[in-house]
Write a sequence for this structure.
């Protein structure tokens, strides 16, 4: 009997911190009514955000009077959030059309084109400030040379620490500079070292670069007093592990997340790569990436996959990767064997992904995903 498995957690309502009450009381009610704030973050739960305050009474009024619209499909959302206080507090998320989505109400709010265009334009500028640039490993290894030090920022928590590059031919082998840096890094990993990949932004000389790190001390140790026994790896676009000539899929996903480039990547990907991305996202507990991969599905089915993700502890897959078959130009399937762990329970499953697209030039969308006993 077919079992349905996992995908994604989306928080029910997204609320952002307004200014402290004391500062609100210091403002006139007229000023408060005109306040609209945009913020960019990699996920609804991310603590690290880049924020922009807009003083635009007309935009605030447009938000106040936005017309609600029902939809049966999972929305196509950006990483930009909109908050305002007009007649009542509103916490909304920008969709790709420049309209708004309320997770709490499960509705879209439609704006006149003038205001949706304004929000998209402001969001574009804000995203450029928030994310790191994509830099290939060939460029990055010169920009971050051996023995150089630089800052690493976790894209979710915003926590930062310093590292030194000690070695690495196909990626950067680095170590925290001090015990304090090691303590921050361990906090990012909930105080337990892990091989899980995390999206990070590395900074040096005023330049911010998208990257991915793992959190497991291993190998040689060149800074013995830092409380970190060994080194860990930081990957950049197209870098590879020691064991493969191909980029690690999970590291590449995290790099694209740190660059804010996941959507264009998925829109240009085929079914096999999309299926692999879904498995990697689930394995790394990247709920927002799984949500992105279920966009366009019926909302109830998307929500069901989201809830089931929370029960998955880890997924181990075969090295061969998913097998892809096409049924004409508009339909395709991908299949991949995996071992799924739910706490102490282990299951050997075959994942099956059904994809479709509206035309040969349209992006592939997930129609259904199931998992059967292997």
């Amino acid at each position: 009997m077919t079992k349905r498995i996992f995908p994604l957690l989306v928080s029910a309502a997204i609320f952002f911190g307004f200014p402290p009450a004391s500062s609100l009381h210091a403002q006139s009610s007229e000023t408060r009514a005109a306040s609209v704030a945009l913020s960019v973050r990699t996920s609804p739960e991310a603590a690290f955000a880049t924020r922009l305050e807009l003083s635009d009474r007309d935009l605030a009024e447009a938000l106040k009077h936005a017309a609600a619209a029902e939809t049966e499909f999972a929305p196509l959302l950006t990483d930009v959030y909109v908050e305002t206080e007009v007649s009542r507090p509103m916490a909304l998320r920008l969709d790709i059309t420049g309209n708004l989505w309320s997770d709490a109400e499960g509705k879209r709010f439609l704006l006149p084109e003038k205001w949706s265009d304004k929000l998209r334009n402001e969001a574009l500028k804000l995203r450029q400030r928030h994310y790191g640039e994509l830099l290939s490993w060939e460029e990055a290894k010169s920009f971050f040379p051996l023995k150089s030090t630089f800052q690493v920022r976790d894209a979710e928590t915003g926590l930062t620490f310093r590292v030194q590059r000690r070695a690495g031919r196909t990626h950067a082998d680095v170590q925290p500079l001090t015990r304090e840096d090691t303590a921050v890094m361990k906090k990012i990993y909930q105080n337990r070292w892990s091989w899980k990949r995390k999206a990070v932004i590395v900074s040096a000389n005023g330049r911010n670069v998208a990257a991915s790190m793992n959190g497991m001390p291993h190998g040689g140790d060149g800074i013995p007093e830092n409380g970190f026994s060994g080194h860990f790896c930081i990957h950049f676009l197209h870098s590879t592990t020691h064991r493969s000539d191909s980029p690690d899929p999970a590291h590449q996903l995290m790099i694209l997340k740190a660059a804010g480039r996941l959507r264009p990547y998925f829109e240009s990907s085929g079914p096999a790569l999309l299926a692999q991305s879904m498995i990697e996202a689930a394995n790394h507990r990247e709920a927002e990436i799984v949500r992105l991969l279920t966009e366009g599905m019926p909302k109830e089915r998307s929500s069901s996959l989201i809830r089931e993700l929370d029960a998955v502890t880890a997924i181990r897959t075969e090295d061969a990767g998913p097998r892809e078959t096409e049924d004409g130009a508009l339909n395709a399937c991908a299949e991949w064997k995996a071992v799924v762990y739910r706490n102490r329970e282990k299951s050997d499953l075959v994942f099956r992904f059904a994809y479709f697209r509206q035309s040969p030039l349209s992006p592939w969308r997930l129609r259904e995903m199931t998992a059967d006993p292997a």
